Amino acid sequence: MQYGKKMTAALCGALVAGIAAGCSGGAETTNNEKTAIKVMHYDERGFYQQYGMLFTALYPDIEVQVVATSSVQYEEGKDMQKAMEEFIAEQKPDVLMLGASEYSRMAGEGKLYNLDTFIQKDKFNLEGIAPGILEYIKQQSDGILYGLAPEFYSQALFYNKDLFAKHGITPPTDRMNWEEVLQLAARFPTDGNGDDRIYGLKAGYQADIYQFGMMIGSSLGLNYINPTTMQLSINSDSWKKAFETADKALKSGSLYAEDRNGGFSGSYEDYLLQEPFIGEKVAMSIEGSYMMEQIKEAQTRLKDKGVKNWDIVTVPINPQNPNESTAMSIGQIFAIDANTANADAAWKFVSYINGEDFARVTSKLRNGGFSARTKYIEDEEGRNMAAFYSLMPNSNDMYKDFDKLPREFYMKFDGLTQQEFQGVKDGSVTIAEALDNLQAKGQKLLTEESEKAATAEPSPAGASASGESITIITEGAVSEAPAE
What we know:
- It contains 16 helices and 17 strands.
- The chain has helices at about 1-20, 45-60, 80-90, 100-110, 115-120, 130-140, 160-165, 180-185, 210-220, 235-250, 270-275, 290-300, 345-355, 355-360, 405-425, 430-455; strands at about 35-40, 60-70, 95-100, 145-150, 150-160, 200, 225, 230, 280-290, 310-315, 325, 330, 335, 370, 390-395, 470-475, 480.
- The longest helix is centred in the last third of the chain and has 25 residues, at about 430-455.
């Protein structure tokens, strides 16, 4: 992690010099007095590494002040949404960095600047941005564009073309559903042991019925808690089917299960080969952009070993919403405050970080994500890179408003799920019985914890009774605040 940050900073420094020389057509260097704008971001250092170094090199007449959301502290019994609202009202940033729900709420309250006038005046090119990203943002704000997201995160289904050819199995295609993908996986032989064994699919690190079932259910747009009514629905027929699908796939022996207890000793080359897709132990694997970097490094270091003939298709989709994916999400949405006195300068920043030049010079950094401008998502071998962006983020987020749930509920509910699904694994209860038990016990737990939270006395600002640091997670901010 630290190595990655240092490399990002070094590359950004080199890019600043390059872009200042090669893209100076976008800069405005005049003798006018500087315009100052406040930009909302996690922290100042991160802002300059990711955006600020390049922007200030091109726009020296615009002075940027970073409004760090890391200063927002959690208070027991206080709504984090309200805390962020108070933060924004107090700091008055011109450019807001928002999560999807914050963006939707503020757009609905008329607090964001309509970008259409700027887009038309500057002939700002929207066509190069992945259509699914623009559509998703517009969905959050009644069809009007109040913000833009310069990057997104996505996964795809990687597949080994040689293994499919060797076993005479038709390769996967875009927009297959879970049943189809799991049927493909089950066609690979399940005999053999250790290094001789080939698995049909690695689906992330979901190695147990509950986690894999949740993965399938969320991709189908299912929800199991309503944070508004504080009601569970984990034992619905749809959830039962999702867990039964997961159970059947795991029992088939076609799914690769990560050994979480195993350590590693050996060379870096051995470490690369230990990754099951690179080591050709699995025919298909659901992975993000980092897998491409690992494959590239393996091909450089391992020469004749490791996967070489591979491609990607979209992750399994929900047949009811075949154009959406829970494996795709946008980065933060950058919007302009409706009441800003510096709208023109704010737009220069928002349009620059979402524009062609920025995407071109930063596309190689990637940092786990992709530029929203698909022109810069490419592969020298002509692979199906559209698999990463041809879908759009799921409009029905299973975890939306989960910050409203009592904090203690998560840990205790996780214990209940382990207990109930251990019974499924042992054969002492059926999936239906486990979910019915989980529904009853979970609802009782949620009700009790909700009542405790409702009667809890707010702690002094930022304080925690345990004296431990508190991790703050909201769509607009992630930080760790030391308890007083």
